[in-house]
Amino acid sequence: MSEQPYPTYDTLQQAKQTYLAGLSRNTRRAYGSRIDSFLTWYADSEQRPFLSQLKGYVAYLHEERDLAPRSIQAHLNTVKGLVRTAAAIEPALAVYLSQFDLVNTPRVRGRVQGMRLSRKQARILLQAPGKTTPKGLRDTAIIGLLMITGLRRSEICTLTWGHITEIEGHKVIANLKGKHGRIRTIKLPAWLWEILMAWADEAGMDPADATRTVFVPITKDGRVLVERDGMSAHAIYKLINVYTEEADLPPVKPHDLRRTAALLARRGGASIEQVQLMLGHSNPQTTSDYIGEGLDLDDNAVDYNPLQV
Question: Is 6 exposed, middle or buried (0-12, 13-18, 19+ CB in 10 A)?
Fold first, then answer.
């Protein structure tokens, strides 16, 4: 066995608390779940060279949990952050950080990640809440932001009226801070701006109050809880479930509507660079994955094969 210090379970548990401190609630939940998955597996596995451990964990995620390559990479990135934090507690553990570069996730080509609604399905979902009640206006605005501007669920929860403004005559969401601290500005269609303003009027909100969150809960009897500060991510998840079921649409998650925004914008003629800026991706390949450009079922290689029975 190597005389190098080995990352012990207790050290990693201690590092977990430090690593998760200061993260947002949703991020803490996601990262904590990945760390718990790793620590449970780690505690039950045989101690061997750490690089071998990492490769074994990737095999476990791929073969036993059947996770997609991108999900496996997310798990690895979180474990790397955990080990980096552990190295702050025991500096000698930093030697293991470079070993993550030697661990490859399985490459699976042709797998479509997530769901995307067609243009017709998207229109049905957008019209599902109606615009005759405060709840209908609020939910139409939320679905529009998910499916037109590609906002993340967490970004909608923290969106404030200070983000909703005008630049050079255009209605925009300005200086929105997203994942990994990236800041972007997104244009708003005039109709979506009008729905947001109608929602503010019906809810008794002042769009000039820059610090107030745009969306607040509504009770079952239709009372707008203006005094509350924002909606939960779970409430938005449930909202999408309700409307897709009512409209007899395929079950989709809020993040699938972000993919739908990318796909419809691209098919409508937007450049890959503009879609990337809208979504706030650092890598255009990630944007292509969201659009699903790697697999075109309308113009597929199979369509060009002349053989038939």
Answer: middle
